[in-house]
């Protein structure tokens, strides 16, 4: 059976290593220790945890897009109708074309944090901050 270190679990689940350690410490996710004292999570246990988490986590976005890239907006070019938004998500550079109105409503600007959702040939951008109107 596969065994995963805390950092590997964090990368697979999409959370920080500290979050995984809290899950283990609280008993939410089972782990054992290797001979060096590192925590290891069994592949079967991790798969069950991830399946259950997809249904239980109310904070999880509901979307058919499965490829999410959380990153930093590195460039925004707006013209009269369209906007080109460039993001860096780890080693991945993503570029999305959208309406200027959408970029404005999402509050996208250089240095803001956003998530790009990739579905087929489309990139959908989400933002944790948004503006209420065009003059906010």
TrEMBL record:
GO terms for biological process: molybdate ion transport. Residues 62-127 form the Mop domain. GO terms for molecular function: DNA binding. PROSITE patterns: MOP. InterPro entries: HTH_17, Mo/tungstate-bd_C_term_dom, Mop_domain, SinI_DNA-bd, Transp-assoc_OB_typ1. The keyword DNA-binding does not apply. Keywords: Molybdenum. Signal peptide: none annotated. The keyword Chloroplast does not apply. NCBIfam families: excise. This is Helix-turn-helix domain-containing protein.
